[in-house]
Amino acid sequence: MASKLHQLQSKACQATQFACKHGSSYYKQLLEQNKQYIQEPATVEKCSLLSKQLLYTRLASIPGRYESFWKELDYVKNLWKNRQELKVEDAGIAALFGLECFAWFCAGEIVGRGFTFTGYYV
């Protein structure tokens, strides 16, 4: 157990050194590649304006997303009504989607407990 801890500490130290060595060049490169998104001058007023624009743009998109949700729900209802005509591929996709949702639920439960496995006897 102590050797594993030492290996983990060593890897963390290497990662920190790499980040210190290459972090500023990566930061400069990232800003250079995305300079078209940077607002000049960077003032508090400009940041406030942009945050309000984002908020109200998101609020304005709610009706479209609401309509899309109901279209998707109608599609699923139609599939359920005609489930005798359902292809194996469609059923497989639905099963994989359900399995993915369950896996994300389990992962969320584990994260919510602080990455502890309780109730399992190993």
Automatic annotation (TrEMBL):
Entry keyword annotation includes Transport: yes
Subcellular location as annotated: Mitochondrion membrane
GO cellular component labels: mitochondrial membrane; proton-transporting ATP synthase complex
GO molecular-function terms, A-Z: proton transmembrane transporter activity
Principal place of residence: mitochondrion
Domain of life, per lineage: Eukaryota
Keyword entries, A-Z: ATP synthesis, CF(0), Hydrogen ion transport, Ion transport, Membrane, Mitochondrion, Transport
Entry's Gene Ontology BP terms: proton motive force-driven ATP synthesis
Family: Belongs to the ATPase g subunit family.
Protein name listed in UniProt: Mitochondrial ATP synthase g subunit family protein
Organism (species): Cucumis sativus (Cucumber)
